[in-house]
Amino acid sequence: MLPELTHEEIHRYSRHLLIPDVGLEGQRKLKAASVLIVGTGGLGSPIALYLAAAGVGRIGLVDYDVVDFSNLQRQIVHGESRLGDLKVESARDRLLDLNPEIQVDIYNEFLTSDNAFEIAEPYDIIVDGTDNFPTRYLINDLCVLTGKANVYGSIYRFDGQASVFDARVGPCYRCLFPEPPPPGLVPSCAEGGVLGVLPGTIGSIQATETLKLILGIGEPLIGRLLLYDALDLSFQSVKLHKNPDCKVCGEHPEVTELIDYEDFCGMPARDHEEGSAGAKWDITAVELADRLKAGEKLRLIDVREPHELEISHLEGAELIPLGEFASHLSELDSAEEIVVFCKVGTRSTRALEILASAGFKKVKNLKGGINAWAINVDPSLPIY
Amino acid sequence: MPQLKIPTPLRPYASGESTLTLEGETVAEILEAMVDLHPQLRKHLFSETGQLRPFVNLFLGEENINQLEGLQTPLEEGDTLLIIPSIAGG
């Protein structure tokens, strides 16, 4: 039995009720629906706002983070007055301001293999608005194992992808990407950047697909991957096929319960933590400053991109972008002491690995990157 | 000659280029021409044993080459081969 709409709701959703494909019955389906949105960041913001405005009766929000200044360029559910507040609380308050008729559940925690089943249990559909590979594989496997649709979206710089993975009737995320890329190959948005409006486009597509699934109308993106290039302003869709050998949804699945996804991906699930190469290889900004002040001869290698120098730079550092690093090894001398750094220490950890595997022993990674230097040593530098 | 579209995350290893026009009559040949031109792409796209890595998806038109003839899929003048990367930002 679908819930009835109050007069106030009929007024609120009038523009939906006018569409024959939605109508009163469709709006009642939306009111009865429950959707879990994982991540309340770039993608999660428009997804949550549109689903709340559309009258999805129960929305769950999962995020462990707090609102940061650098989020506001794209995470439109949050505002400057909520800096430092829990993202799930900031988002819930905004959604309830937009639509007090709905129920918003918040989970101020990190989605893990231990809590995922319990958190997802009350919801019909899971929407993936996360920012990292381990959580994406976790959401996929969770949806396959529990028989739920996974409304997928992913972004990087000017590129976006969207699909609906529903292993009951089509391929899953692992059918397309059986394994994640090696750590460091695909930078996160925290390292590589993202056009602020891009998650608006892709998140809106995810919200559209979610509403279509609930309403049972149109052709969902099941078995198709939508590719969006904001620079060309082109949309292209390619066909996806179920992989009979898929480890989670194939004919002989090996993954029958949730696994350790950070281990599977070889990378942490929190994308903006300080990049660390491990205690043996790290040097802190304060240590580095002390050693430079003491007159020690250290060769500083900045592995960021050239355009990042305009934002901040360290005196005396040489630029070798990570993408070109391997081909410049001959210019470095393993007898010298080398310190590599980037914005937060993630890319420089990759550079350090290249050096270490080439036999360099006297190399260090500036833990936390030039941002840590700006915080702990030279406050005249901006943090980005 | 067929074209190959390089996805954004791999462009740093291809001198920043987004589209390469390469000589080759099959997918395998065009990939070989690609790594000859940009050797850094090899280790990102191929395993030590020379196999395409599982996170690399190649599409010709709407179809995954695995649904066609795999690396032996023939390419014609004007074809565009698409590398679809795994991205995770949100």
Describe this structure in words.
With 384 residues, chain A is an alpha/beta fold. Chain A has two domains: 33-265, NAD(P)-binding Rossmann-like Domain (Rossmann fold); 282-376, Oxidized Rhodanese, domain 1 (3-Layer(aba) Sandwich), CATH 3.40.250. Chain A has 15 helices and 13 strands. In chain A, the strands form two sheets. In chain A, strands 3-2-1-4-5-6-7-8 form an eight-stranded mixed sheet, sandwiched between helices. In chain A, strands 9-13-12-10-11 form a five-stranded parallel sheet. In chain A, strand 7 (224-229) and strand 8 form a beta hairpin. In chain A, helix 4 runs parallel beside helix 10 (198-215). The longest helix of chain A is centred in the middle third of the chain and has 18 residues, at 198-215. By secondary structure, chain B is of the alpha+beta class. Chain B has a single domain (3-84), classed as Ubiquitin-like (UB roll) (Roll), CATH 3.10.20.30. In chain B, 19% of the residues lie in helices and 19% in strands. Chain B has two helices and five strands. Chain B has helices spanning 27-37, 40-45; strands at 3-5, 19-21, 57-60, 63-64, 80-84. A five-stranded mixed sheet of chain B has the order 2-1-5-3-4, covered by helices on one side. The model of chain B has no long low-confidence stretch (mean pLDDT 92). The interface between A and B is large, with 50 and 24 residues.
Q: Strand-and-helix sequence of chain B, N→C? A: EEHHEEE
What is the CA-atom radius of gyration of chain B, in angstroms? Answer: 12 Å
Shape of chain B: globular
CATH homologous superfamily identity of the largest domain in chain A: NAD(P)-binding Rossmann-like Domain
Which CATH class of chain B? Alpha Beta
In total, the number of strands of chain A is: 13
Number of domains of chain B: 1
* Approximate shape of chain A: elongated
